[in-house]
Amino acid sequence: MASAVQRLDRVVKAYDVRGTDEDLDPEVARALGVGIAEELGAPGPQGEVLLGHDMRPSSPVVVEALTAGITSRGVDVRHLGLVSTDALSFAAGHLHRAGAMVTASHNPAGHNGIKLCRAGAVPVAIDTGLARVRDVARRVLVDGTPPPVDPPGAVHHDRIDDAFVAHVHRMIDTSVLRDVRIAVDAGNGMAGRVVPLVFADLPVEVDELYFELDGSFPNHPANPLDPANLADLARHVVDHDLPLGLAFDGDADRVFAVDETGRPVSSSLVGAVVAERLLARNPGATVLYNLICSRTVPEVIEAAGGVPVRTRVGHSFIKARMAETDAVFAVEHSGHYYFRDFYRADSGLVAALVLLEAVAEQDRPLSEVVAPHDRRVASGERDLVVDDPAETVERVASALADDAAAVDRLDGLTVDVGAAWANLRPSNTEPVLRLNVEGDDRAAMQDLLDRVTAIVADPHHA
């Protein structure tokens, strides 16, 4: 069996803590709790740490161990109970406290994790505090737990449901949400708890699919990024002649949509619709989009009178850039939508409701709402296993140099050949390159996709 330090090193990732239940066991979680207290907490009410968790069977065990570690350093813990990640982010902003959310998001059963933020919902990644949390935890595992602080931190219990729902409702125009019937697939995740709370007082009828909280995911994985996990939702939407369906991931901070034909609608198109509506309320505002989003997104932002700003992939980069630019909204290709008025945190629920506004106000199904923006063809993200990611990226850059209208290195390599563009980014955790290609039509997309994959596959290609 791996040592505790080895288990710790396996679960601490670039943006959060995540791994199997065997690795994120009580010993490792308690040590991380000490690190969280040292990095994010302080004695007294203002220095308490908010602690929420999802429905996974191991979550109460991790919460108990984190609580023991945090309170051993004299830092108070405020338990929020079962919450979605965006509800925890809201609480961290609303109460101005640091927070820890116990969840493995869309990962399979048998996994768990911890997402951290500072007071105000400021994210904590490896280079903004998570490495220090890990290093303190490593010292605890090697040298033993330091003598407990006297008195230890107190444990409080609180619910933030009412404040969360009220805040979400203030961010949308509830007057246009009338007589709409939709389907929502919660995937047995936290949407099964928060969607009924948020929709209870709205004039929207929700057909509920898999709303029972069950971290064993008996129906399908809570990962709607995989189209296979949208099949039940798509079938229900078509069978019941609904204008759209929504699917949330395990911790309910991401949302994905299918139109009335059951076709998955890309996050870029959803983001374009949301951006339009927010810019109508905030004329001239800045909107961020990561570099994997469709080229349609900045075009829509500009047409709506906004200022588009392109960013790297990753929530910590996006939230920092939002603070710098006072952006009203940001969209990621992976189903994350960030809102300035939601403490710059991402919320699938807020994005879903703004999308519903557009469908209800136009009284048209989703395909017709997004049709004005649905003008390009994307490959979807492909994982390419390679021996040397850095060398492979340079080989692709060299091979396409003569045909490139533009090249940039904002995040990996992006090559624009006019009718199509491709981005190739190294993974943070494995020898994999993530490839995204978009074209003005299918032929242009397929041509560039074939060229890049051929170059990657041939180590002798120059």
Structural account:
- With 462 residues, the chain is of the alpha/beta class.
- It folds into three domains: 4-159, Alpha-D-Glucose-1,6-Bisphosphate, Chain A, domain 3 (3-Layer(aba) Sandwich), CATH 3.40.120; 160-375, 3-Layer(aba) Sandwich (Alpha-D-Glucose-1,6-Bisphosphate, Chain A, domain 3); 377-457, TATA-Binding Protein (2-Layer Sandwich).
- The protein is 38% helix and 22% strand.
- The protein is built from 15 helices and 22 strands.
- Strand 2, helix 3 (59-71) and strand 3 (77-82) form a beta-alpha-beta unit.
- Helix 1 (4-11) runs antiparallel to helix 5 and helix 2 packs across helix 3.
Task: Output the structural class.
Answer: alpha/beta
Domain module tally = 3
- Main beta sheet, described? 7 strands, mixed
What would you give as the CATH superfamily of the largest domain?
A: Alpha-D-Glucose-1,6-Bisphosphate, subunit A, domain 3
Radius of gyration: 22 Å
Percent range for β-strand residues: 15-25%
User: What is the CATH architecture descriptor of the largest domain?
Assistant: 3-Layer(aba) Sandwich
**Helix coverage percent of residues?**
25-40%
* Low-pLDDT segments: none
The rough form would be described as: globular
Cα(first) to Cα(last) distance is 45 Å
Number of strands: 22
Reported by name, the CATH topology of the largest domain is Alpha-D-Glucose-1,6-Bisphosphate, Chain A, domain 3
